[in-house]
Structure formats: structure tokens, C-alpha cells
Specification:
The protein is an alpha/beta fold. Helix content is about 40%, strand content about 20%. The chain has 28 helices and 29 strands. The structure holds 1,4-dihydronicotinamide adenine dinucleotide and the ligand N[C@@H](CC=O)C(=O)O. Homotetramer.
């Protein structure tokens, strides 16, 4: 005997019923089949709605019922044309189900009362109608089929709404029925049963799976197949995790854990009856019958992954019973659970700290209010005496659980779980793990569920892939190059580093372009110009509210306001990658706050390009200090612009023209006065000194400007005009140096807590003398590099190299 159950979607339309019957016909060729069917998709909800409307005195139930009747009539007519011999009789039998439902609802309408008993009877109409259609049509598939009323086989108590099954009587009735009904195919309505008095009961929502499992157990079936609209039990809810995949083989216990925690393909009580008898349970897809599906069995082969699946259950409230009066006194938990049990409140999760100071239980949100009343009443005396606190409910929570038998005795699973969630700013409110180690449950905020499940799915199932979500602000010179590089490198990043880097948003000071699935990086300039307007504050809110895993804010502006949003983002575990130097050179307190937020919330704050563009200057300095070295002195040329200008200026072309060239080639700051005034170099040496461990402010850096003061009065155009007017000043600087056989370099120096920047004549043979083009150089003198400095040298400015430095920081942040 084989038992095949078809869910609501598998029988939702005439076409789907045909597909289901084709599957049954194939199975029937192998041996007898019990075909259990759910109601046509959506019918049960509609019937509940109808009953409730009638109870409220809303006469619209009549119209809804006649629409339901019509939907069923049309389905039967499509499957069995009116010209067929018994078609009229079959349609009349079907119509009778809805006439009965209408009569029931009329009664409910008159009395304005809908009892659970009446509702069970009303809901049964859905499965009765669907099974009648299927049984009628089965004959056309050359199957010897009969319709079997489940109420004659499955016996329950009289707890209407969710009756408990009398397994022994069910087995007896089913066995006897089988002796008298040798037909090859039984078509049985799922979900419904009857009590000892013959009154219709139901087995709980999703109960058709349970009907099938009960019959499989009663008939000692060789297998149970649950036919649904997905190809098996998945590693995670596919609506939340795109890369979720079916689990090929799984144990009964694992399937039970997963189904309890939201894997909706299986109604949790289904597993018990088949597990007891070791009957293999398949979950298969009616719409892709050749897919393997999931086989639930006693001893599946050891899975390749330690975790079999990740599940979640929403709508959770935590109830925290807390107080010093509980410590060491037996009986508190007993009283707590008894108080909840009296109200028939199901406890989903329990945790107790070893200090015995608090017990925390998770319940369905709708049970929270009655639970609070019941528990506060139970402990009224202790609460009045101040020995325990009144019950504290915490709402809007969810459970996310890892499930897998291989987790047992496998160290590091919880560590990985906590690490992955922590890195993404998902706070864990409570944890539960039984000694069986098959399930590790975490309670988190409901709004973090999607992110949490995706993060965990990546951590446990996609060792080869990690999704990274970028929010890019300020696609100017550097930003546009960065986007070009990202577009080019995306396939390489996925293949070589397992990083799926997606640009989710690009914003400039006017518009913001967003696509949560990743923007098309070839069309962004045109699309951004058309995109809606957005403020910086809104951009920050967008990043926070999207709550995507591995989010990185990339600041490629020079804007102080942009630097002002880092702290809020870090506090939400959003990593920051910035070539904008404003934050790292702002007040020391702000710089230190960002560093500490980065540590506290496990989110990178990286700004390697702040000094020397893509040169590994900050990284080298960090390596030195982290390994215990002490930086005593630094000497450096840190301005690509000034090095370019003094390397090219020989009096043959005006000084201002060469500065313009440096700007055109993308070496200067958006405001070139920052470079020429020495301010940009001062920011850089300040950042290096801070990274070396010094507490310094910008005002501590001595800036010796070589510009005539008039050049810094007015706007950028006035700056160029004034430089042209002071050409003789620049020429004199050049000639003085040349006469002395030296070169002009704008040098930054740091020693023993003091720093200064200024123009110097550098003699041949000096480490700073031979510095070409827009190059930078940094000499580190440390306790380990005493006489010969550690030297970092190379191109120190330019959009392309800076973008590649930002890119490298993104990869660093992503791989953390
Ligand atoms: N060019 C270089 O060699 C290097 C540059 N950097 C830094 O890179 C940053 C960017 O430089 P560039 O790309 O040359 O400048 P840019 O002026 O070409 O680009 C900056 C972009 O930011 C946008 N922006 C400004 N304020 C904004 C706001 N509030 N919201 C959104 N967008 C805003 C601007 O519209 C512009 O598109 C600067 O902070 C600079 O210090 C760092 C190292 C080297
Ligand atoms: N304007 C800067 C570029 C990067 O910081 C420079 O010229 O060095």
C-alpha cells in the first residue's frame, strides 16, 4: 500500500488535479494507493471567513459560498464534461456540499454564534468537495477508484478545532475497511475525522498531511508521499533565502525539528506515526515530479553539511519571570508552567540562567496577554512582596534555529552561529539548545529574520559564497572608477574569492538609485540622473532599514556631512570604507569614537586611501604597531598633487597651469586649495600619527605654507588668478632650489609626538630626492627600523589607483 497526499495547490485547479491524478495513476500501476487530498487551494480560509461573517451578521457569506460552489462546479465540469453519462449526478452531489455549508451558515447567521464544532463541520466541506471531484475523475484515468469518507476511518476525541486522534481505533477501523474494500485506489478527504458520536472533527490546519500519515501507519504502507508545490524540504525558507536548496535525505528527527520551526512543507504531527513504523516519507513536487524531492527516513547517509536546515518561527513574545526571590527555591518553574498550561498556552522555547534569577519562555504573540494575566495572578503574593517582578513580555521577536543531527559533538557550531549574527548586528535575545544538540535556537528581533537566515545560510551552506551589499556615496572621479572596476571584477570576485559583491545603492548629492538585487553597473550614470531625490539622512536610513547582510557604506565624497553618518552606521554593524579623509582627521574624540564603535559592533572602519591613495601605508603602520613595534619618526612626501607640480615646474610654463593640469588629471582634492595650502598633507600626517598611537589634533600640526596669502582669499577661480599673479614667487622658489642643486619637496615630518609640514629643498642622495611624477613616499623609523627606515613608495594620487585602494578595503571588510 502506498499513501500519496496532495496539498491545496496540487488540487487548486482542473489542470493541477490532472497532474496529481497522473502521478497517482503511475503509482497505482505499482500497487494499491490511498490518495489523500486537501481542499482546493484557498477554500479552507474562505470557509472560515464565511463562518465568521455569518456569525457577525454579515450576509455576504451567501455570495462567497456561491462563488466557492461555482469554482468547484467549473473544475468538475472541465474534468468531466457535462455530456458524460453521470455528470449531472456528480454535479448534484458536489453542489450538495455547498448547500449543506449554506444551511450551516444560515444557522450561524440566525444565532450569531459560531462554535468550534460548527466551524469544523463547515470547514470539512472543502475536503469533501475536493475529494468528490478527484474520486469522480479518477475513473477516467483507468483506475479502479472509490471515494472513502475519512470520518469512517479516523476517530478522534471531541476537541473540536484540533482534535486528538485515537490511534488504536483508527487502526482498527482502517484495517476492517480495507478487508471489505479491495479497490486499487481510495480517494480520501484529508484534514477531517469524526468523534465517537460521529460528529465531524478536524485535525488542525495542515492536517491533511496528518491524515495521510495516520492512514500510512494504520495500513503499514510501504511509503508515504507528500506532494506539494516545492521540490522537497529546503535548507531554508526559499521565500527568504534565494539560494535555499532541497535537502535530499533527512532523518525523522531532523524533519520534525525543521517542520516545527516553520518548514511549512510538512505539518509537524505528520512525522510521528510514520516514524514509529519506520515508513519512508517522501516530499515531492507535483509540478516537477521528476525532481528527487526529500526522503525522510530512519538513518539517512551522513549529510555533507553539519547543519541540515535553518528554520524560523515568527510572531513570538518572550515572557521573562525574574526576581531574587526565585534563587534556590524549588517549585517556581513548576508553578510558572502550570499557570500557562491551565490557560492552554503552548510554550515554544524555554531558557533559564544558571543563576536561577530568571526564567524566560517564548510563546505565540496572541498568547502573551492571557499568559501575563495568568502568571501575574499565580505569583501575586511574591510580586506584592517584591520578591519577583511582574511578568515582562518582549514583543516582535522570532526564533531562528539551526537543525542537524551532525551538530552533536561538533564543536564550533554555536561559535560560528553567534559570530555570523554578531558581525551583522543581529542581537540575540535568548538561546536554547537541548542536550540532543539537534537544534540550536536563537531568539532575535522579527525585523532581523531575513538577514539572519541569509547570513546563516551563507555561513553553513555556501562556504564558497558570501554576499556583500555596497551603498556608494559620491560617484565622482574616484567613485566612477571604483564602479568601473567593480563591474569588471564581479565575476572574478565570485569565482576566486567567493564574494558576490552587489552595489545596492549609488547616491550623489541630488539623486539616489537603489536596487536591492544589485544595480546594473553599466547603466548607472543615466539611471542615477533619473532617480528620485534623496537627502544624506534618508540615505543613511535606507542603509539601516534595508538591514542587508554584510552591508558596507562606501564614502567616496570629500563631504564633512557624509563623515557625520559613520557613527550611526557602525552602531548598526554597517562597515565603512572611506577615501574621504574628513572623519579620520576630525576631532580626536570623534576619530576614537569611530574606532571604538567599529570594535564594539564588529564592523570594519577602513580608510587606507586616506594616506598615499592605494599605497599600503596605514596597513604597514598597523602591522608594525600591532606586532609591538613603536614608531619613533616618520618622514614623508604625502601630496601627489604637490609632488607632480614641483616635478613639472621649471618656470617654462606658469605654475598655475601645472596646478590646473594636476586637477584635470584627478590628483587634487575636489577643492585644490586644500592641496596647495598644505592642509591635505597635514591631515595625512595627523592620521598617521594617530594610527601610530598619538593623541593629536589638527591644530597640533605646524603648517608652513609656501603660498602667498592672497592665493587663499576668495574662491577657486580667484585662487588660480592669484597664483598666476604671483608667478615670480613660484619661480624664485624654484630657482633658489636649482641653484643649490636641490629639488623642492613638500615634506611631512613626525617625531616624538610633534608634526610639521612644509616645502623643503632636498639634496641629491636624500631618500625623498628621487621621487617621480605624482609619487608619494613614507619613511618609517621605528624600534626595529632604526637606521634604515621601512619605506613605502609609489603612485600616491589619481582616481584609478585610489579607486583600487577603496576596492581593496571593500574586499578586506567583506572578508572579515
Ligand atoms: N583623487 C585622489 O587621488 C584621491 C582622492 N581621495 C579622496 O577621494 C574623495 C573623492 O575625490 P574625487 O572623486 O576626486 O572627488 P569628486 O569631486 O570627483 O567626487 C566627489 C563626489 O561626491 C559627491 N558629493 C559631495 N557631497 C555629497 C553628498 N553630501 N552626498 C552625496 N554625494 C556627494 C560630489 O557630487 C562628487 O560627485 C575625496 O575625499 C578625496 O580626498 C583620496 C585619495 C586619493
Ligand atoms: N589630493 C591628494 C590625493 C589623495 O589624497 C593628493 O594630491 O595627494
Amino acid at each position: 500500500m502506498q499513501v500519496l497526499k496532495f496539498g491545496g495547490t496540487s488540487v487548486a485547479s482542473a489542470e493541477n488535479i490532472r497532474k496529481s491524478l497522473a502521478i497517482v495513476a503511475q503509482a497505482a500501476a505499482q500497487g494499491p494507493v490511498v490518495m489523500v487530498v486537501s481542499a482546493l487551494g484557498g477554500t479552507t480560509d474562505a470557509l472560515i471567513g464565511v463562518g465568521r461573517a455569518a456569525a457577525k451578521g454579515d450576509a455576504s457569506y451567501r455570495e462567497t459560498l456561491s462563488q466557492l460552489a461555482e469554482r468547484h462546479r467549473v473544475a468538475l465540469q472541465e474534468l468531466e464534461p457535462a455530456s458524460e453519462f453521470h455528470a449531472e449526478v456528480h454535479q448534484a452531489e458536489l453542489a450538495m456540499q455547498f448547500d449543506n455549508a449554506a444551511a450551516l451558515c444560515d444557522g450561524v447567521f440566525a444565532l450569531r454564534e459560531l462554535s468550534t464544532r460548527t466551524l469544523d463541520k463547515l470547514m470539512s466541506c472543502g475536503e469533501l468537495a475536493s475529494s468528490l471531484i478527484v474520486a469522480t475523475v479518477a475513473g477516467y484515468y483507468e483506475m479502479e477508484a472509490i471515494w472513502v469518507d475519512a470520518r469512517k476511518l479516523i476517530c478522534t476525541n471531541s476537541r473540536f478545532g484540533a482534535a486528538e486522534v485515537d490511534i488504536a481505533t483508527t487502526k482498527k477501523k482502517t484495517t476492517i475497511f480495507k478487508e471489505h474494500h479491495p479497490q486499487k485506489v481510495w480517494v480520501v478527504p484529508g484534514f477531517i475525522a469524526a468523534d465517537a458520536h460521529g460528529a465531524t472533527t478536524t485535525l488542525g490546519r495542515g492536517g491533511s498531511d496528518y491524515t495521510a500519515a495516520l492512514l500510512a501507519a494504520a495500513l503499514d504502507a510501504e511509503k508515504l508521499e507528500i506532494w506539494t508545490d516545492v521540490s522537497g524540504m529546503m535548507t531554508a525558507d526559499p521565500r527568504l533565502v534565494r539560494s535555499a536548496r532541497p535537502i535530499a535525505r533527512i532523518s525523522y528527527q531532523e524533519a520534525m525539528e525543521l517542520s516545527h520551526f516553520g518548514a511549512k512543507v510538512l505539518y509537524p504531527p505528520t512525522i510521528q506515526p510514520v516514524m514509529q513504523r519506520g515508513i519512508p516519507l517522501w516530499i515531492k513536487n507535483t509540478f516537477a515530479p521528476d525532481d528527487y524531492g526529500t526522503l525522510v527516513e530512519v538513518a539517512p547517509p551522513r549529510a555533507a553539511t553539519v547543519v541540515q536546515g535553518i528554520s524560523s518561527i515568527g510572531n513570538l513574545t518572550l515572557l521573562n519571570l525574574e526576581g531574587s526571590g526565585m534563587v534556590g527555591i524549588p517549585g517556581f518553574s513548576k508553578r510558572l508552567f502550570e499557570a500557562l498550561a491551565r490557560e492552554r498556552i503552548n510554550v515554544i522555547l524555554i531558557t533559564q540562567s544558571s543563576s536561577e534569577h530568571s526564567i524566560c519562555v517564548g510563546v505565540n504573540a496572541q498568547d502573551a496577554a492571557p499568559a501575563q494575566v495568568a502568571v501575574d495572578e499565580e505569583f501575586a503574593t511574591e510580586i506584592a512582596a517584591g520578591r519577583i517582578e511582574p511578568l515582562r513580555p518582549e514583543k516582535d521577536l522570532a526564533i531562528v534555529a539551526l537543525v542537524g543531527e551532525n551538530m552533536k559533538d561538533h564543536p564550533g557550531i554555536s561559535g560560528k552561529l553567534f559570530g555570523a549574527l554578531g558581525q551583522n548586528g543581529v542581537n540575540i535575545r535568548a538561546i536554547a539548545q537541548g542536550a540532543s544538540e539537534k537544534n540550536i535556537s536563537t531568539v532575535i528581533r522579527a525585523q532581523d529574520v531575513r538577514k539572519a537566515i541569509n547570513v546563516l545560510h551563507e555561513a553553513f551552506f555556501e562556504a564558497t559564497k558570501k554576499q556583500v551589499n555596497l551603498f556608494i556615496l559620491g560617484p565622482g572621479n574616484v567613485g566612477s572608477k571604483l564602479l568601473e572596476q567593480l563591474a569588471r571584477q564581479q565575476p572574478h570576485l565570485l569565482e576566486k574569492l567567493g564574494l558576490q559583491v552587489r552595489v545596492v545603492a549609488i547616491a550623489n548629492s541630488r539623486h539616489c538609485l537603489v536596487d536591492e538585487n544589485g544595480l546594473d553597473l553599466t547603466a548607472w550614470p543615466e539611471e542615477l540622473a533619473q532617480a528620485p531625490a534623496q537627502t544624506l539622512e534618508e540615505f543613511k536610513e535606507l542603509i539601516i532599514s534595508r538591514n542587508l547582510r554584510n552591508s558596507i557604506f562606501v564614502d567616496v565624497t570629500a563631504n564633512p556631512a557624509a563623515a557625520g553618518i559613520y557613527a550611526d552606521l557602525l552602531a548598526k554593524s554597517v562597515a565603512i570604507v572611506a577615501c574621504n579623509k574628513v572623519a579620520a582627521s576630525s576631532d580626536y574624540a570623534h576619530y576614537a569614537q569611530l574606532k571604538s564603535l567599529s570594535k564594539e559592533f564588529n564592523a570594519s572602519y577602513l580608510f587606507e586611501t586616506n594616506v598615499g591613495a592605494a599605497l599600503p601605508v596605514i596597513g604597514t603602520l598597523n602591522d608594525l604597531t600591532r606586532s609591538g613595534d613603536v614608531v619613533r619618526r616618520m618622514e614623508a612626501v604625502l601630496s601627489g598633487t604637490l609632488n607632480f607640480v614641483f616635478n613639472h615646474y621649471d618656470g617654462s610654463r606658469p605654475f598655475a597651469e601645472i596646478v590646473r593640469q594636476a586637477q584635470a588629471e584627478g590628483y587634487t582634492e575636489p577643492d585644490p586649495r586644500l592641496d596647495l595650502s598644505g592642509t591635505d598633507v597635514a591631515r595625512k600626517i595627523l592620521i598617521l600619527a594617530r594610527e601610530a598611537g598619538q593623541v593629536m589634533e589638527m591644530s597640533d600640526i605646524e603648517i608652513e605654507s609656501f603660498l602667498p596669502p592672497a592665493c587663499l582669499e576668495g574662491n577657486v577661480e580667484a585662487f588660480y588668478t592669484q597664483m598666476a599673479a604671483h608667478e615670480s614667487h613660484f619661480k624664485a622658489l624654484y630657482e633658489d632650489a636649482t641653484v643649490a642643486g636641490k629639488r623642492l619637496k613638500f615634506v611631512a615630518r613626525y617625531a616624538e609626538g610633534r608634526a610639521a609640514v612644509g616645502l623643503q629643498q632636498v639634496a641629491p642622495g636624500h631618500d625623498l630626492y628621487d621621487l617621480r611624477g605624482k609619487d608619494n613616499v613614507v619613511l618609517f623609523y621605528t624600534d626595529r627600523y632604526v637606521d634604515q627606515p621601512l619605506v613605502v613608495k609609489g603612485a600616491g594620487a589619481g582616481a584609478e589607483v585610489t579607486a583600487s585602494g577603496v576596492f581593496a578595503d571593500i574586499i578586506r571588510a567583506a572578508r572579515l
